[in-house]
Write a structure and sequence with these properties.
By secondary structure, the chain is an alpha/beta fold. The protein is built from eleven helices and eight strands. Helix 7 links the parallel strand 5 and strand 6. Helix 8 packs across helix 9 and helix 10 runs parallel beside helix 11. GO terms for molecular function: arginase activity; manganese ion binding. Its cofactor is Mn(2+). It is an enzyme of class 3 (hydrolase).
């Protein structure tokens, strides 16, 4: 059942730091902030300990006391009272940008602190805007890290391409520095200047199937490697994971940050999530990804995002939470034999 990590990057004894991030500010549906609490209540900490890890869990991060910076009057998401340019109009469409920026900044510091102590941070979301923080924290500790992003969606809309202004569909545009520079230190965009830079060649996607038109253009323009469900169908998940690793980690020497949105899984497998899209990864395909990344011995950080216990019926919630815990265990070394 368990196989302790052969990971040589982490300190001994091998320690997981579980960060509960009950945050929903990057998207409009209530309930995703309850995901971490449900995952922990389902026994995740004990399950990870049974795999041979030490576990550090200091409770769930309290974001109630994180508020937008003072003296900034948000007018539809921008601190400028007059919206008179294309840039200002784009900024104005962003939902709760100051709150998202503040929360993600605090998450980045927490992930960085654990990573620099040689622990493996496992961040439980919460919505996927949090990855701006988790990946920034990883890159501060491991500047050569690569990111494997498992998702139905590309989450790479810029301030210009976003239709909704929901920042959970935008974290990678901030990490890849695809948005325009802040026009002034007072601009909302300046509140994201702390975000670390992830080079495009160190990002790979698996599971895409609902990609906005603007995002398709971004992926092509920046030559970002993405394996859609079409590729999973064509090659099989084993080959896809191998090709993904060959792209971002050709020498198998870079630390890996695995960011897993449960909506990558088919809704029949993980129904309780905010933006389900049919035709997703099977239960086994999702687990194989986690198992294969564990086998590299290079995993240094894991995100499990977008479990929303407020959506669907009680049995669907139980199913989604159970799958979420199971994915974490697979990434931390649980094996079938």
């Amino acid at each position: 059942m368990s196989s302790m990590s052969s990971n040589n990057i982490l300190s001994s004894p091998k320690t997981v730091a579980i960060l509960g991030c009950p945050f929903s500010g990057g998207q409009p549906k209530p309930g995703v902030d309850k995901g971490p609490i449900h995952l922990v209540q389902a026994g995740l900490i004990n399950q990870v300990e049974e795999l041979g890890w030490h576990v550090v869990f200091d409770g769930h991060h309290q974001f109630e006391d994180v508020s937008p910076p003072p003296n900034s009057i948000q007018v539809n998401g921008t601190s400028d009272a007059v919206v008179d340019t294309a840039l200002d109009a784009s900024i104005a469409r962003l939902r709760s940008p100051l709150l998202v920026a503040q929360v993600c900044k605090s998450v980045a510091s927490a992930v960085q602190a654990h990573a620099e102590m040689g622990r493996l941070p496992v961040t439980l979301g919460g919505d996927h805007s949090l990855a701006m923080g988790t990946i920034s924290g990883t890159l501060r500790a491991y500047d050569q890290a690569c990111v494997i992003w498992i998702d139905a969606h590309a989450d790479i809309n810029t301030i210009y391409s976003t239709d909704t202004g929901n920042i959970h569909g935008m974290p990678l545009s901030f990490l890849l520095k695809l948005n325009p520079p802040a026009p002034s230190p007072d601009s909302v965009l300046a509140k994201f200047d702390w975000v670390s830079h992830l080079p495009a060649e160190r990002l790979v996607y698996i599971g895409l199937r609902d990609v906005d038109k603007g995002e398709k253009e971004i992926l092509k323009k920046h030559n970002i490697k993405a394996f859609s469900m079409h590729d999973v169908d064509r090659y099989g998940i084993g080959k896809v994971v191998e090709m993904a690793l060959d792209h971002v980690n050709p020498q198998r020497d870079r630390p890996i940050h695995l960011s897993f949105d449960v909506d990558a899984l088919d809704p029949s497998v993980a129904p309780s999530t905010g933006t389900p899209v049919r035709g997703g990864l099977t239960f086994r395909e999702g687990h194989y990804i986690c198992e294969a990344i564990h086998e590299t011995g290079l995993l240094v950080a894991l995100d499990l995002m977008e479990v929303n216990p407020a959506l669907e019926d009680a049995e669907s919630v139980r199913q989604t939470v159970t799958v979420g815990c199971s994915l974490v265990r697979s990434a931390l070394g649980e094996t079938l034999l």
